[in-house]
Structure formats: structure tokens, C-alpha cells
Amino acid sequence: MGSWDTGPFDNDDAMDLADALDRARSHQRAGIITTRLQSFVDAGAPPWDTDRLTAVAAAALVASQCPGGPQRTAYWPKKAIPELPSEVRTLATTALDLLLSNVQSSVDSWFVRSRGEQWLENIEQLRLVLDPDRPLTTVYTPALPGPTEIGTRMLHAMVGVERLRELAGPRLAGAPRMLMRQLNDAAGQLDAAHAEVLRAAQESMTSLDHTRTALRHIVDDPDGVDRPHLPVPGGTGPLHAALAVRAARREHLAGLLELQLALIGPAPYNRASAARRRSATTGPAVPLELLASPTTPGKQPSRSH
């Protein structure tokens, strides 16, 4: 399975469904969508991602015919999908409810944490479009941050995991939603910057070790019989640059956290629950100009899956 983004058709399996629909006759397309959804429901949320991704793509096609549905992208089927009966909408809702009740492994399989959670948020949004009157339940517990994920750890400590999941819910819209995405992106960028600092520090230590070894050879060879090339110390330039990038990204994340606290407010006390029932979440408007990322030294890391 190959994925290049978090949308319903941004993966190879969904594109296979799109190709099948484009090859089919118009009167056959509704049946193909129904069959893919029904197969997923009958299997009881199988653990392999191929069926899950195909079910999400089929559900997105159904949701696109509902008010507030997703926008088509270049990877969607090129041929028009005929009007689908109401029972297919119910079937798509059931499929997404089943997926969200057992979504942990799919989210954890993403290489970048924030990308997996964005994929999950997109599915939750599809589910609410399909049936906005019935609350949805998502069973997902974010994994603890790894040793190098200092940005994610900082975000969890300041906002709280439960509060992050609540604020990332699909009912949050507009500028507050943009703020939460900026927070997640900033945390991921700080994680990447810290990993780069560790890599550069290791390279610097290796360079210094080589210098130390060469100096030891000179000390042990006072007659100059054996004079290996002596590396010039000075491999700390990349480390200094990496430290500057990390400092800038930490400052950016801290600023966004202060903005979140001031405009959205702290979380009320709540016991963590594996199954989180969604409810409407609103927040005050955030000036969009405050959400712009700063220019930081160094190359920005890729956020692809």
C-alpha cells in the first residue's frame, strides 16, 4: 500500500477503486460502491489496510452527495457517480463506525504521527457528513511520544492528550481548527529538528574521536615515524545550524501554545477514556495572520507519509 497524502483517494488502493468505477458502465457504479462497503461491513473491520482504505474511499463517494461533503481531487473517479439510494448512505455510515471502533493500528502505522491523526480526522469528518445527528465514537489512544519527539511531548504536556483529541475533532472549524493544525505541525517540526540535532551531534563526536585518535598516534610516536593524517577539528558547523533551527521551532511552538491557551482556553478536568464520544466544539475566532509559521534557518523537513 502506498499513500502520498491523507485524503480518501490519496493511496493506491483507493485509486484502484477509482479505476474500476471509471471502467464500469454508469448503471454498474452504484453496485460497485455498495459491494465494497458491504464486504467491509460483513468482514467485521478486517485488520488489513487494503479493505479499510477502499471502504473509506467508497464512503467518501457517498458523502460527496451529501451537504458539506468532501471536495473531489484529481485522484477521484473521472466518470460521474449516479445518485445513490439512501440505504447506501446508511451502509457507508455503518462502515465508518466499524472502522473508527478499531482504528488504532491504522493510525499507528503512519510513519509521521500527525499525518496518521490527520487521516483519522478526515474519516471522522466523512462520518459526520453521512450522519450529523448521531454522535460518533472513535477508539484511539495516541502512543506515548518517543525519545526524540520533544515537540510532541511538549504539546501533550501543555494541552493534554484528551484535550488534543477533543480539539482535533471534526466539528472544530475555521481559525481554531487552523490553530490546532498549526500546533500539530509545529510539534512535528520540532521533533524533526531535535532528531537532526542528535544526528549532527553524533557526527561531531565521531569527528572529535578521529581527531583524538590521530593525536594519540602523534603522542605515541615522538620520532615521527608514523604520522597519520590529522583531521582538523571543526565539524561542529552543522550542529550549530541544527541547534539554531531547533531553538527557532521551539519558540514557534511555545508561541502557538500561548495563543491556544489564550483563545481556546484550558481543558476542564476529564478522565481519559479510550472511547471518546464526540460533541460540538467551538472556539473564538483566531486572527489568521497570527498563525503564519516563522522563517527558520535550515531546510524544512518533509512531512510525507
Tell me what the structure shows.
By secondary structure, the chain is mainly alpha-helical. The protein folds into two domains: 12-137, no CATH class; 174-291. Helix content is 57%, strand content 2%. The protein has ten helices and two strands; from the N terminus they run H-H-H-H-H-H-E-H-H-H-H-E. It has helices at 12-23, 26-43, 49-63, 86-100, 104-108, 113-130, 150-159, 161-167, 174-220, 237-263; strands at 137-139, 275-277. A two-stranded antiparallel sheet has the order 1-2. Helix 1 crosses helix 3, helix 7 packs across helix 9 and helix 9 (174-220) runs antiparallel to helix 10 (237-263). It is elongated and about 90 Å long.
Concise structural overview:
The protein has helices at 12-23, 26-43, 49-63, 86-100, 104-108, 113-130, 150-159, 161-167, 174-220, 237-263, and strands spanning 137-139, 275-277. It is mainly alpha-helical and 305 residues long. The chain is elongated.
Average residue pLDDT: 77
Looking across the biggest beta sheet, what order are the strands in?
A: 1-2
| Main beta-sheet annotation | 2 strands, antiparallel
> Roughly how much helix do the residues carry, as a percent range?
55-70%
Distance from N terminus to C terminus (CA atoms, Å) equals 12 Å
Please work out how many helical segments DSSP would assign.
10
Low-confidence stretches: 268-305
User: N-to-C SSE series?
Assistant: HHHHHHEHHHHE
How many separate domains?
A: 2
Strand-residue proportion: under 5%
Q: How much is the radius of gyration in Å?
A: 25 Å
Q: Tell how many strands the DSSP assignment holds.
A: 2
Overall geometry: elongated
Structural class: mainly alpha
